[in-house]
Amino acid sequence: MGIIRTLAQNEYPALLREIPSPPKELYVRGALPPPETKLLTVVGSRAMSRYGKDACEALIAGLSGYPVAIVSGLALGIDTIAHKAALSAGLPTIAVPGSGLDDSVLYPRANFALAKEIENKGGALLSEFDPLWKPRPESFPQRNRIMAGMSHATLVIEAGEKSGTLITARMASDYGRELLIVPHSIFADGGAGGHIFMKIGATPIRTSADILEALGIEAGAPTVMPDLNEDEKIVINMLIEPTPRDELIRSLTSDFSFDVSRANVLLASMELRGLIAESMGEIRKGI
To answer: What 3-state DSSP class applies to 93?
Structure first.
């Protein structure tokens, strides 16, 4: 990958210079976004659910075209999805690993190719650790303060009650940054940690527009839903929540007298138009 260089103090992300004990040195590979870009840290569970993955992808996709860069820690799980979603949306992304930036130590190894893609597509890798620093358990809370400190807001997508993600959330709150939480299902344990912060004032996030508001960015005019024919309107009205494909087809055939072939052709057409999306056998409204 590219050259590792040391940032001058005046090149640090502006907010990072304001935190207690800012890093004495910062190393970078690639290019940081322009200073006027709003930085959004996105963190969450390594053992993410499908709901967490879908929420992360949809929320970041909705930021496309706005002056926002996605910051995360290159870890497996939500971090990985956040970086990939940013790349797909054409947004800059900054990875802050818990290691140095040299190829020989970059962590996790499973995301080495992703780190290379981030750099090649105009993003950056950032670390306060010596380039040859190998990750240690204490490295990760230390790098979490970088992510929380450099960003205008931190978005938590799934975090257990004892999750390391909550360290970043607490730091963001301590630094006076916006703390944003994706509400989680009451029937799942994975997001219980984030709800702790909602009790003390963190902002619940349901849409990308909620994130833009928290970042102080004026959203453009609401996207106009393309003209739908009567069959498409039926499907959209049925998708109050993600629904298994088989269940959706059964409802179309039993309640609306579709035959199976007509239902499948309709769903395929709607997916091609971006009106719906399918993930792990369930269909939801498109982004």
So the answer is: strand
How much is the pLDDT for 186?
Answer: 73
Q: Is 77 left (phi over 0), alpha (psi -120 to 50) or beta?
A: left
Bridge-partner residues for 145, per DSSP?
A: none
Q: Where are the domains positioned within the chain? A: 5-214, 230-285
Q: Say what angle helices 112-120 and 78-89 make with each other, to 10 degrees.
A: 30
* Residue appearing with tokens 């040195």: 25
- The class of domain 5-214 in CATH terms is alpha beta
140-193 tens-digit pLDDT: 989 999 999 999 999 999 876 666 787 888 888 889 999 999 988 777 766 666
79: nearest Cα among 115, 33, 106: 115
Q: Torsion-angle region of residue 65: left (phi > 0), alpha (psi -120 to 50) or beta? A: left
DSSP, res 124: E
Pairwise CA distance, residues 112 & 1, whole Å: 10
The label of the residue with tokens 């497996």 reads 76
Strands 27-30 and 282-285: unpaired
Angle, helix 165-174 to helix 139-150, in steps of 10 degrees? 40
Q: Give the residue from 38, 117, 129 showing the smallest Cα distance to 80.
A: 117
Distance CA 180, CA 182 (A): 7
Both tokens of 218, joined, read 């004026």
Joined tokens for residue 233:
């309107």
d(CA 232, CA 265): 11
Please give the mean pLDDT across all residues of the chain: 89
Q: For residue 17, what are the contacts with CB-CB under 8 A and spacing of at least 6?
A: 9
Q: What is the DSSP string of 56-107?
A: HHHHHHTTTTSSEEEEE---TTHHHHHHHHHHHHT--EEE--SS-SSTTT-S
